[in-house]
Amino acid sequence: MNHLREQIAVWGTIVDVDCYSQFVSDADLYLAMKQITDFCEDVDRDFSTYKEDSWITRLRLGKVAIEDCPDDVIEVWDLCAQAKWLSDGAFDPWAVKDGFDPSGLVKGWAADKCADMLVAAGVPHVQVNAAGDLALRGGWFDSAVEEIKPWSIGVVNPENRMEVVKVYEITDGAIATSGTYERGAHIRDPHTGLIAIGAASATVVGPAGWLCDAMATAVMVGGSDCAPWFGQPELQGYQVFAVNRHEETAWEI
Amino acid sequence: MKRALLIAGGTVGGLGAVLAITPPQLSTTSSINIAGGTAIGTTGTSSSASASSSTSSSAPAKSAKPVATKKATAGATTQPTASQSATATASAAATQTTAPVTTTIKDGTYTGPVINVNYGNVQVKITVSNGKITDAVAVKAPKGKNDRYTNMAVPILKAQTLQAQSANIQGASGASYTSYGWFKSLQGALADAGF
Protein backbone atom coordinates (compact mmCIF):
# COMPACT_ATOMS: atom_id res chain seq x y z
CA MET A 1 0.00 0.00 0.00
CA ASN A 2 1.59 3.26 -1.09
CA HIS A 3 0.90 6.48 0.73
CA LEU A 4 1.33 10.10 -0.12
CA ARG A 5 0.41 13.15 1.89
CA GLU A 6 1.02 16.66 0.62
CA GLN A 7 -0.09 20.17 1.24
CA ILE A 8 -0.95 22.31 -1.75
CA ALA A 9 -0.63 26.04 -1.17
CA VAL A 10 -3.43 27.63 -3.11
CA TRP A 11 -6.44 29.94 -2.65
CA GLY A 12 -4.56 31.75 0.12
CA THR A 13 -4.74 28.61 2.19
CA ILE A 14 -3.60 25.01 2.31
CA VAL A 15 -5.26 22.05 0.67
CA ASP A 16 -4.11 18.98 2.54
CA VAL A 17 -4.28 15.74 0.56
CA ASP A 18 -3.76 12.36 2.17
CA CYS A 19 -4.08 9.27 0.02
CA TYR A 20 -3.29 5.58 -0.17
CA SER A 21 -3.27 3.17 -3.08
CA GLN A 22 -2.46 -0.47 -3.49
CA PHE A 23 -2.80 -0.15 -7.26
CA VAL A 24 -0.37 2.51 -8.35
CA SER A 25 3.31 3.10 -7.71
CA ASP A 26 4.74 5.91 -5.63
CA ALA A 27 5.75 7.64 -8.86
CA ASP A 28 2.19 7.49 -10.14
CA LEU A 29 0.93 8.82 -6.82
CA TYR A 30 3.14 11.86 -7.33
CA LEU A 31 1.81 12.27 -10.84
CA ALA A 32 -1.77 12.10 -9.60
CA MET A 33 -0.96 14.67 -6.91
CA LYS A 34 0.53 16.92 -9.60
CA GLN A 35 -2.63 16.57 -11.63
CA ILE A 36 -4.81 17.80 -8.79
CA THR A 37 -2.34 20.54 -7.93
CA ASP A 38 -2.71 21.80 -11.49
CA PHE A 39 -6.48 21.63 -11.13
CA CYS A 40 -6.38 23.65 -7.90
CA GLU A 41 -4.25 26.28 -9.58
CA ASP A 42 -6.73 26.41 -12.46
CA VAL A 43 -9.52 26.93 -9.95
CA ASP A 44 -7.55 29.79 -8.43
CA ARG A 45 -6.99 31.35 -11.83
CA ASP A 46 -10.64 31.07 -12.80
CA PHE A 47 -12.48 31.74 -9.55
CA SER A 48 -10.34 33.96 -7.38
CA THR A 49 -12.03 37.22 -6.44
CA TYR A 50 -8.53 38.55 -5.69
CA LYS A 51 -7.39 38.16 -9.28
CA GLU A 52 -8.30 40.93 -11.66
CA ASP A 53 -8.61 38.68 -14.65
CA SER A 54 -10.30 35.63 -13.19
CA TRP A 55 -13.57 34.69 -14.78
CA ILE A 56 -15.42 35.42 -11.56
CA THR A 57 -13.94 38.90 -11.27
CA ARG A 58 -14.84 39.65 -14.84
CA LEU A 59 -18.37 38.34 -14.27
CA ARG A 60 -18.69 40.59 -11.24
CA LEU A 61 -17.50 43.58 -13.21
CA GLY A 62 -19.90 42.80 -16.02
CA LYS A 63 -17.09 42.32 -18.52
CA VAL A 64 -18.28 38.86 -19.47
CA ALA A 65 -21.56 37.00 -19.29
CA ILE A 66 -21.91 33.54 -17.79
CA GLU A 67 -22.34 32.08 -21.26
CA ASP A 68 -18.83 33.23 -22.14
CA CYS A 69 -17.28 31.35 -19.24
CA PRO A 70 -15.61 27.93 -19.29
CA ASP A 71 -17.49 24.77 -18.32
CA ASP A 72 -16.25 24.68 -14.73
CA VAL A 73 -17.46 28.21 -14.06
CA ILE A 74 -20.84 27.44 -15.60
CA GLU A 75 -21.05 24.27 -13.53
CA VAL A 76 -20.39 26.19 -10.32
CA TRP A 77 -22.91 28.86 -11.32
CA ASP A 78 -25.56 26.18 -11.84
CA LEU A 79 -24.75 24.46 -8.55
CA CYS A 80 -25.06 27.81 -6.79
CA ALA A 81 -28.52 28.20 -8.27
CA GLN A 82 -29.51 24.76 -7.01
CA ALA A 83 -28.17 25.48 -3.54
CA LYS A 84 -29.97 28.81 -3.44
CA TRP A 85 -33.22 27.04 -4.27
CA LEU A 86 -32.65 24.27 -1.74
CA SER A 87 -31.92 26.80 0.99
CA ASP A 88 -34.83 29.13 0.30
CA GLY A 89 -32.34 31.83 -0.63
CA ALA A 90 -30.36 31.68 2.61
CA PHE A 91 -27.42 30.69 0.42
CA ASP A 92 -27.39 33.32 -2.29
CA PRO A 93 -24.11 34.03 -4.04
CA TRP A 94 -25.76 36.75 -6.11
CA ALA A 95 -26.89 38.81 -3.11
CA VAL A 96 -23.37 40.01 -2.48
CA LYS A 97 -22.34 43.65 -2.70
CA ASP A 98 -19.86 43.32 -5.53
CA GLY A 99 -21.69 40.66 -7.49
CA PHE A 100 -21.78 36.90 -7.86
CA ASP A 101 -19.43 35.27 -5.37
CA PRO A 102 -19.44 31.47 -5.25
CA SER A 103 -16.83 31.26 -2.49
CA GLY A 104 -19.29 29.56 -0.14
CA LEU A 105 -19.47 26.58 -2.47
CA VAL A 106 -16.29 26.42 -4.54
CA LYS A 107 -13.99 24.83 -1.98
CA GLY A 108 -16.36 21.95 -1.35
CA TRP A 109 -16.89 21.55 -5.09
CA ALA A 110 -13.18 21.61 -5.81
CA ALA A 111 -12.36 19.18 -3.00
CA ASP A 112 -14.79 16.69 -4.52
CA LYS A 113 -13.26 17.14 -7.96
CA CYS A 114 -9.79 16.50 -6.57
CA ALA A 115 -10.91 13.40 -4.73
CA ASP A 116 -12.65 12.01 -7.81
CA MET A 117 -9.59 12.71 -9.96
CA LEU A 118 -7.45 10.73 -7.55
CA VAL A 119 -9.87 7.83 -7.53
CA ALA A 120 -9.94 7.85 -11.32
CA ALA A 121 -6.14 7.72 -11.29
CA GLY A 122 -6.22 4.50 -9.27
CA VAL A 123 -6.06 5.94 -5.77
CA PRO A 124 -9.06 4.60 -3.84
CA HIS A 125 -8.37 6.02 -0.37
CA VAL A 126 -8.41 9.80 -0.32
CA GLN A 127 -8.79 12.71 2.05
CA VAL A 128 -8.79 16.15 0.49
CA ASN A 129 -9.03 18.84 3.15
CA ALA A 130 -9.56 22.22 1.54
CA ALA A 131 -9.33 24.47 4.57
CA GLY A 132 -12.09 22.71 6.46
CA ASP A 133 -14.09 21.42 3.51
CA LEU A 134 -13.24 17.77 3.10
CA ALA A 135 -13.85 15.12 0.47
CA LEU A 136 -13.28 11.55 1.59
CA ARG A 137 -13.09 8.40 -0.49
CA GLY A 138 -12.56 4.78 0.43
CA GLY A 139 -11.49 5.19 4.06
CA TRP A 140 -7.84 5.19 5.12
CA PHE A 141 -5.34 2.43 5.58
CA ASP A 142 -4.18 1.84 9.12
CA SER A 143 -0.89 0.11 8.56
CA ALA A 144 -0.58 -0.74 12.24
CA VAL A 145 -3.39 -3.25 11.87
CA GLU A 146 -3.42 -3.54 8.06
CA GLU A 147 -7.02 -2.49 7.81
CA ILE A 148 -9.07 0.01 5.91
CA LYS A 149 -11.05 2.18 8.30
CA PRO A 150 -13.45 5.06 7.78
CA TRP A 151 -11.84 8.48 7.94
CA SER A 152 -12.46 9.99 11.38
CA ILE A 153 -13.00 13.71 10.94
CA GLY A 154 -13.30 15.99 13.92
CA VAL A 155 -15.49 19.07 14.13
CA VAL A 156 -13.99 21.74 16.29
CA ASN A 157 -15.90 23.72 18.91
CA PRO A 158 -16.07 27.28 17.63
CA GLU A 159 -16.02 28.60 21.19
CA ASN A 160 -12.98 26.60 22.11
CA ARG A 161 -11.04 25.70 19.07
CA MET A 162 -8.90 23.31 20.99
CA GLU A 163 -11.79 20.99 21.56
CA VAL A 164 -13.11 18.46 19.11
CA VAL A 165 -16.83 18.33 19.78
CA LYS A 166 -17.93 15.75 17.31
CA VAL A 167 -16.30 13.11 15.18
CA TYR A 168 -17.81 11.85 11.98
CA GLU A 169 -16.65 8.59 10.50
CA ILE A 170 -16.84 8.85 6.76
CA THR A 171 -15.78 6.27 4.23
CA ASP A 172 -17.14 8.08 1.17
CA GLY A 173 -18.59 11.56 1.34
CA ALA A 174 -17.95 15.16 2.14
CA ILE A 175 -18.00 17.37 5.20
CA ALA A 176 -17.98 21.14 5.34
CA THR A 177 -17.97 23.47 8.31
CA SER A 178 -18.85 27.13 8.19
CA GLY A 179 -18.26 29.21 11.20
CA THR A 180 -17.13 32.40 12.76
CA TYR A 181 -13.76 30.85 13.35
CA GLU A 182 -13.10 30.49 9.68
CA ARG A 183 -12.55 34.05 8.60
CA GLY A 184 -14.29 36.00 11.26
CA ALA A 185 -17.85 37.14 10.83
CA HIS A 186 -17.74 37.09 7.05
CA ILE A 187 -21.06 35.51 6.24
CA ARG A 188 -23.89 37.90 5.63
CA ASP A 189 -27.57 37.14 5.50
CA PRO A 190 -28.59 37.86 1.92
CA HIS A 191 -32.00 39.03 3.04
CA THR A 192 -30.84 41.62 5.54
CA GLY A 193 -27.21 42.27 4.64
CA LEU A 194 -26.32 41.84 8.29
CA ILE A 195 -23.74 39.43 9.65
CA ALA A 196 -25.24 35.97 9.85
CA ILE A 197 -26.49 35.08 13.30
CA GLY A 198 -28.06 31.69 12.89
CA ALA A 199 -25.29 29.65 14.39
CA ALA A 200 -21.80 29.86 15.77
CA SER A 201 -20.81 27.11 13.42
CA ALA A 202 -22.54 24.71 11.10
CA THR A 203 -21.25 21.39 9.81
CA VAL A 204 -22.92 19.49 7.01
CA VAL A 205 -22.02 15.95 6.03
CA GLY A 206 -23.26 14.28 2.88
CA PRO A 207 -22.44 12.87 -0.52
CA ALA A 208 -21.64 16.07 -2.45
CA GLY A 209 -19.04 18.58 -1.31
CA TRP A 210 -20.56 21.56 -3.10
CA LEU A 211 -23.87 21.05 -1.35
CA CYS A 212 -22.30 20.46 2.07
CA ASP A 213 -20.34 23.67 1.66
CA ALA A 214 -23.34 25.72 0.51
CA MET A 215 -25.70 24.30 3.13
CA ALA A 216 -23.20 24.90 5.93
CA THR A 217 -23.01 28.54 4.83
CA ALA A 218 -26.81 28.69 4.70
CA VAL A 219 -27.28 27.21 8.18
CA MET A 220 -24.92 29.88 9.51
CA VAL A 221 -27.49 32.37 8.29
CA GLY A 222 -30.69 30.59 9.16
CA GLY A 223 -29.85 28.56 12.24
CA SER A 224 -32.37 25.97 13.32
CA ASP A 225 -34.95 27.46 10.96
CA CYS A 226 -33.03 25.57 8.30
CA ALA A 227 -33.92 22.20 9.73
CA PRO A 228 -36.86 21.57 7.37
CA TRP A 229 -34.59 21.87 4.34
CA PHE A 230 -33.00 18.60 5.37
CA GLY A 231 -36.33 16.91 4.79
CA GLN A 232 -36.25 17.70 1.09
CA PRO A 233 -35.60 14.69 -1.14
CA GLU A 234 -32.47 16.30 -2.59
CA LEU A 235 -31.01 16.40 0.92
CA GLN A 236 -31.64 12.78 1.80
CA GLY A 237 -28.41 11.47 3.17
CA TYR A 238 -27.26 14.85 4.45
CA GLN A 239 -26.63 15.47 8.11
CA VAL A 240 -26.15 18.75 9.90
CA PHE A 241 -24.60 19.67 13.21
CA ALA A 242 -24.82 23.26 14.34
CA VAL A 243 -23.48 24.94 17.43
CA ASN A 244 -25.72 27.65 18.78
CA ARG A 245 -24.42 31.09 19.53
CA HIS A 246 -24.24 32.25 23.16
CA GLU A 247 -25.41 28.91 24.55
CA GLU A 248 -23.43 25.82 25.12
CA THR A 249 -25.77 23.79 22.97
CA ALA A 250 -25.92 22.31 19.56
CA TRP A 251 -28.50 20.68 17.37
CA GLU A 252 -28.19 18.05 14.73
CA ILE A 253 -30.06 16.00 12.17
CA MET B 1 -10.81 24.55 29.98
CA LYS B 2 -13.42 22.49 28.34
CA ARG B 3 -17.03 23.41 27.87
CA ALA B 4 -19.57 20.68 27.73
CA LEU B 5 -21.96 20.81 24.83
CA LEU B 6 -25.48 19.61 25.22
CA ILE B 7 -27.02 18.28 22.09
CA ALA B 8 -30.42 19.94 22.12
CA GLY B 9 -31.94 19.07 18.79
CA GLY B 10 -33.06 15.81 17.41
CA THR B 11 -34.71 14.72 14.26
CA VAL B 12 -37.23 16.82 12.38
CA GLY B 13 -40.61 15.64 11.18
CA GLY B 14 -39.78 11.98 10.86
CA LEU B 15 -36.53 12.49 9.07
CA GLY B 16 -34.02 10.15 10.61
CA ALA B 17 -30.55 9.45 9.34
CA VAL B 18 -31.99 8.13 6.13
CA LEU B 19 -29.37 7.44 3.59
CA ALA B 20 -29.84 7.75 -0.12
CA ILE B 21 -30.03 4.74 -2.37
CA THR B 22 -26.29 4.77 -2.82
CA PRO B 23 -25.45 5.39 0.82
CA PRO B 24 -22.41 7.48 1.53
CA GLN B 25 -21.61 5.13 4.39
CA LEU B 26 -21.79 7.74 7.05
CA SER B 27 -22.26 7.16 10.69
CA THR B 28 -21.93 9.50 13.61
CA THR B 29 -20.06 8.97 16.76
CA SER B 30 -20.39 10.80 20.02
CA SER B 31 -18.17 13.70 20.84
CA ILE B 32 -14.59 13.02 21.65
CA ASN B 33 -12.41 14.78 24.12
CA ILE B 34 -8.93 15.68 23.13
CA ALA B 35 -7.08 13.28 25.37
CA GLY B 36 -5.06 10.55 23.79
CA GLY B 37 -1.74 10.37 22.13
CA THR B 38 -2.33 10.13 18.43
CA ALA B 39 -1.75 13.10 16.19
CA ILE B 40 -3.83 14.06 13.22
CA GLY B 41 -2.97 12.34 10.04
CA THR B 42 -0.34 10.02 11.29
CA THR B 43 -2.22 6.95 12.34
CA GLY B 44 -1.54 4.35 9.76
CA THR B 45 1.42 6.20 8.35
CA SER B 46 3.96 4.87 10.75
CA SER B 47 5.47 2.69 8.11
CA SER B 48 5.88 5.34 5.49
CA ALA B 49 5.97 8.92 6.77
CA SER B 50 8.40 8.93 9.63
CA ALA B 51 7.83 11.55 12.27
CA SER B 52 11.30 12.94 12.14
CA SER B 53 11.56 13.39 8.39
CA SER B 54 11.49 16.86 6.95
CA THR B 55 9.14 16.13 4.08
CA SER B 56 6.56 18.75 3.33
CA SER B 57 3.72 16.66 4.63
CA SER B 58 2.19 16.44 8.03
CA ALA B 59 3.74 19.50 9.55
CA PRO B 60 1.64 19.56 12.73
CA ALA B 61 1.50 15.84 13.15
CA LYS B 62 4.91 15.22 14.50
CA SER B 63 4.29 13.44 17.75
CA ALA B 64 3.42 10.06 16.33
CA LYS B 65 6.26 7.63 16.55
CA PRO B 66 6.84 4.56 14.43
CA VAL B 67 6.65 2.52 17.58
CA ALA B 68 4.93 -0.46 16.12
CA THR B 69 7.56 -0.76 13.46
CA LYS B 70 10.39 -0.62 15.93
CA LYS B 71 8.96 -3.11 18.34
CA ALA B 72 7.86 -5.52 15.68
CA THR B 73 11.41 -5.58 14.37
CA ALA B 74 12.76 -6.17 17.85
CA GLY B 75 10.29 -8.96 18.35
CA ALA B 76 11.29 -10.65 15.11
CA THR B 77 14.99 -10.71 15.87
CA THR B 78 14.93 -11.70 19.50
CA GLN B 79 12.03 -14.12 19.60
CA PRO B 80 12.23 -16.65 16.85
CA THR B 81 9.26 -18.87 17.71
CA ALA B 82 5.87 -18.09 16.27
CA SER B 83 4.09 -17.88 19.60
CA GLN B 84 6.68 -15.59 21.07
CA SER B 85 6.62 -13.35 18.00
CA ALA B 86 2.89 -13.14 18.31
CA THR B 87 3.25 -12.12 21.90
CA ALA B 88 5.79 -9.49 20.98
CA THR B 89 3.53 -8.14 18.26
CA ALA B 90 0.56 -8.12 20.59
CA SER B 91 2.47 -6.30 23.26
CA ALA B 92 3.72 -3.83 20.66
CA ALA B 93 0.17 -3.14 19.60
CA ALA B 94 -1.01 -2.84 23.17
CA THR B 95 1.64 -0.35 24.12
CA GLN B 96 1.38 1.68 20.93
CA THR B 97 -0.92 4.28 22.39
CA THR B 98 1.34 4.98 25.35
CA ALA B 99 4.47 5.51 23.32
CA PRO B 100 7.00 7.73 25.05
CA VAL B 101 8.02 11.01 23.49
CA THR B 102 11.10 10.69 21.33
CA THR B 103 14.23 12.22 22.72
CA THR B 104 14.95 14.27 19.61
CA ILE B 105 12.45 16.96 20.69
CA LYS B 106 14.06 19.63 22.82
CA ASP B 107 12.03 21.92 25.03
CA GLY B 108 12.29 25.64 24.48
CA THR B 109 11.01 28.26 22.09
CA TYR B 110 11.63 28.07 18.38
CA THR B 111 11.01 30.76 15.82
CA GLY B 112 10.42 29.76 12.26
CA PRO B 113 11.62 31.63 9.20
CA VAL B 114 9.91 34.79 8.00
CA ILE B 115 7.71 33.86 5.09
CA ASN B 116 6.60 36.50 2.67
CA VAL B 117 3.02 36.08 1.55
CA ASN B 118 1.65 38.48 -0.96
CA TYR B 119 0.04 40.64 1.70
CA GLY B 120 2.87 40.77 4.23
CA ASN B 121 5.23 38.63 6.30
CA VAL B 122 4.39 35.76 8.60
CA GLN B 123 6.63 34.32 11.27
CA VAL B 124 5.65 31.74 13.89
CA LYS B 125 7.18 31.08 17.28
CA ILE B 126 6.39 27.88 19.16
CA THR B 127 6.99 26.88 22.74
CA VAL B 128 7.81 23.29 23.47
CA SER B 129 7.70 21.78 26.92
CA ASN B 130 7.77 18.14 27.87
CA GLY B 131 8.02 17.32 24.21
CA LYS B 132 4.72 18.96 23.29
CA ILE B 133 3.87 22.23 21.67
CA THR B 134 2.25 24.35 24.34
CA ASP B 135 2.01 27.61 22.47
CA ALA B 136 2.22 28.95 18.97
CA VAL B 137 2.12 32.64 18.18
CA ALA B 138 2.68 34.80 15.17
CA VAL B 139 5.55 37.15 15.88
CA LYS B 140 5.05 38.66 12.46
CA ALA B 141 1.71 38.80 10.75
CA PRO B 142 0.40 40.90 7.90
CA LYS B 143 -1.48 44.10 8.64
CA GLY B 144 -3.59 46.35 6.56
CA LYS B 145 -6.25 45.57 4.05
CA ASN B 146 -6.04 41.87 4.71
CA ASP B 147 -6.50 42.30 8.41
CA ARG B 148 -9.40 39.93 8.44
CA TYR B 149 -7.11 37.12 7.35
CA THR B 150 -4.69 38.06 10.04
CA ASN B 151 -7.03 38.71 12.91
CA MET B 152 -8.99 35.54 12.56
CA ALA B 153 -6.43 33.26 11.03
CA VAL B 154 -3.81 33.68 13.72
CA PRO B 155 -5.75 32.45 16.74
CA ILE B 156 -7.35 29.69 14.71
CA LEU B 157 -4.03 28.45 13.46
CA LYS B 158 -2.66 28.48 16.96
CA ALA B 159 -5.50 26.32 18.14
CA GLN B 160 -5.06 23.94 15.29
CA THR B 161 -1.37 23.55 16.02
CA LEU B 162 -2.02 22.73 19.63
CA GLN B 163 -4.91 20.43 18.99
CA ALA B 164 -3.15 18.46 16.32
CA GLN B 165 -1.20 16.50 18.85
CA SER B 166 -4.00 15.07 20.77
CA ALA B 167 -7.12 14.10 18.87
CA ASN B 168 -7.44 10.62 17.41
CA ILE B 169 -8.69 11.85 14.07
CA GLN B 170 -7.23 11.96 10.60
CA GLY B 171 -8.56 15.40 9.71
CA ALA B 172 -10.48 18.35 11.06
CA SER B 173 -13.34 20.30 9.59
CA GLY B 174 -13.73 23.94 10.43
CA ALA B 175 -10.66 25.08 12.21
CA SER B 176 -8.23 24.23 9.48
CA TYR B 177 -8.16 27.60 7.82
CA THR B 178 -4.46 28.01 7.44
CA SER B 179 -2.30 30.42 5.67
CA TYR B 180 0.60 29.22 3.64
CA GLY B 181 2.88 31.64 5.43
CA TRP B 182 1.94 30.30 8.86
CA PHE B 183 2.38 26.75 7.63
CA LYS B 184 5.83 27.28 6.22
CA SER B 185 7.09 29.23 9.19
CA LEU B 186 5.65 26.68 11.60
CA GLN B 187 7.32 23.90 9.67
CA GLY B 188 10.69 25.56 10.16
CA ALA B 189 10.10 26.01 13.87
CA LEU B 190 9.01 22.39 14.25
CA ALA B 191 12.09 21.15 12.43
CA ASP B 192 14.31 23.18 14.74
CA ALA B 193 12.54 21.74 17.74
CA GLY B 194 13.23 18.22 16.61
CA PHE B 195 9.71 17.21 15.59
Largest beta-sheet details of chain A: 8 strands, antiparallel
Largest interface: A-B, 80 and 73 residues
Which percent range fits the helix content of chain A? 25-40%
What value does the Rg of chain B take, in angstroms? 21 Å
Q: Taking all residues together, what is the mean pLDDT of chain B? A: 48
Q: In oligomeric terms, what are we looking at?
A: heterodimer
Task: Compute the number of strand runs of chain B.
Answer: 7
The count of β-strands of chain A is 12
Which spans of chain A have pLDDT < 50 for at least 5 consecutive residues?
A: 181-185
Order of strands across the biggest sheet of chain A?
Answer: 1-2-3-4-9-10-11-12
Strand fraction of chain A: 25-35%
Mean pLDDT of chain A: 88
* Shape field of chain B: flat
Question: CA-to-CA gap between the ends of chain B?
Answer: 26 Å
Descriptive key words:
heterodimer; A: 253 residues; alpha+beta; eight-stranded antiparallel β-sheet; two-stranded antiparallel ribbon; 6 helices; 28% strand; globular; B: 195 residues; four-stranded antiparallel β-sheet; 7 strands; 29% helix; flat; disordered N terminus
What does this protein structure show overall?
The complex is a heterodimer of chains A (253) and B (195). Chain A is α+β, with helices and mostly antiparallel strands and 253 residues long. Chain A contains six helices and twelve strands. In chain A, the strands form three sheets. Chain A has an eight-stranded antiparallel beta sheet with strand order 1-2-3-4-9-10-11-12. In chain A, a hairpin with a 4-residue loop joins strand 5 and strand 6. The longest helix of chain A is centred in the first third of the chain and has 22 residues, at 26-47. With 195 residues, chain B is α+β, with helices and mostly antiparallel strands. In chain B, 29% of the residues lie in helices and 18% in strands. Chain B has helices at 67-78, 82-95, 147-163, 180-193, and strands at 6-7, 26-29, 108-111, 115-117, 120-129, 132-140, 171-173. In chain B, a hairpin with a 2-residue loop joins strand 4 (115-117) and strand 5 (120-129). Chain B is flat, with a radius of gyration of 21 Å. In chain B, helix 1 (67-78) runs antiparallel to helix 2 (82-95). In chain B, strands 3, 4, 5 and 6 form a four-stranded antiparallel beta sheet that branches. Mean pLDDT of chain B is 48; it is low at 1-101, 144-167 and 175-179. Strand 12 (249-252) of chain A pairs parallel with strand 1 of chain B.
